[in-house]
Write a structure and sequence with these properties.
Number of strands: 4
Helix content: over 70%
Organism: Thauera terpenica 58Eu
Main location: membrane
InterPro entries: ABC_transp_permease, BCAA_transport_permease
Distance between the termini: 55 Å
Strand content: 5-15%
Radius of gyration: 20 Å
Membrane topology: Multi-pass membrane protein
GO molecular function, one term: L-leucine transmembrane transporter activity
Number of helices: 11
Length: about 300
């Protein structure tokens, strides 16, 4: 029982990071109906920005952990949002009126470009940093096994809950959220009613990139090591989470991320760790066979 509780904590932590990235996928899909396959590499870029910022703070002899985390988050969100804006401006906007295949190919090309740029500028080796948050809280000191939640895990879960609540409020209660929902339903009609469609889409890309930046900082703090290839696998897992929960649904993206994190954690603990990805994608296939729109997705209804 204690071991299962520990895996639950680990799974929720991993799933929270997947969910943050998945929200970026589902927001972009909801507003333009296309998948931003460069989003995983935006997350990878944010992780490298976080490593660079932590290195600068260490050289400046900054020892305050709250100050360091706040500074790294601000810097990572700022630069990663700029990357998100650039991806939309160069890879999507010029091709918005073309066939659906052209932006898809453009996004894949942007993903490869970001991977190789980071590899050339930062090197192919992994980039480690010293532990930022050590220790934790012992929840259950069972005989022979202690259930512990680390400070980094608490940070990740609490940050995810706060951001999920903030984004849900923004989408449902603010003027910008109404503009997003209007563009999702009918971009042409939204433009006729005075909504700046280009600006709304650009801001959506930037918000998705900002969430990826937070996930990148959390991954850097939790694992303490990054490399130029982490964006590919994390992006695939986050995209899977978005599809599993229902592409276009913010709660669905977070639910999908949590489910994938729990599946990976429990499968690795009790069965075969090397087959955890097989289990994840197998369950995805099963869900899509039984419910093609995802767990919380709604089937598209076209009026004629």
């Amino acid at each position: 029982m204690a071991y299962a509780l520990q895996q639950l904590i680990n799974g929720l932590t991993l799933g929270s990071m997947y969910g943050l990235i998945a929200i970026g996928y589902t927001m972009v899909y909801g507003i333009i109906g296309m998948i931003n396959f460069a989003h995983g590499d935006i997350f990878m870029v944010s992780a490298f920005i976080a490593v660079t910022a932590f290195t600068i703070l260490a050289a400046a002899d900054v020892t305050s952990i709250p100050l360091a985390l706040t500074f790294v988050l601000i810097v990572s969100i700022f630069f990663t949002s700029a990357y998100g804006w650039a991806v939309e401006r160069t890879a999507y906007r010029p091709l918005r009126g073309s066939s659906r295949l052209a932006p898809l190919i453009s996004a894949i090309g942007m993903s490869i470009f970001l991977q190789n740029t980071v590899q050339l500028t930062q090197g192919a080796r992994v980039k480690p940093i010293p532990p930022v948050l050590e220790g934790g809280v012992v929840l259950w000191d069972a005989p022979g096994f202690a259930v512990q939640i680390g400070w980094s895990q608490i940070l990740i879960i609490v940050t995810t809950v706060i951001l999920m609540s903030a984004f849900t409020w923004m989408i449902t209660q603010t003027p910008f959220g109404r503009q997003q929902r209007a563009c999702e339903q009918d971009r042409k009609m939204a433009a006729l009613l005075g909504v700046n469609v280009d600006r709304t889409i650009s801001y959506t890309f930037m918000l998705g990139a900002a969430l990826a930046a937070v996930a990148g900082v959390m991954v850097t703090v939790y694992y303490g090591v990054v490399d130029f290839f982490i964006g590919f696998l994390a992006g695939i897992k986050a995209f899977t989470a978005a599809v599993l929960g229902g592409i276009g649904s913010l709660p669905g993206a977070m639910l999908g991320g949590l489910l994938i994190g729990l599946i990976e954690s429990f499968w690795s603990a009790y069965l075969w760790a090397e087959y955890k990805d097989v289990a994840t994608f197998g369950i995805l296939c099963l869900v899509l066979i039984l419910r093609p729109s995802g767990l919380l997705g709604r089937p598209e209804v076209e009026k004629v």
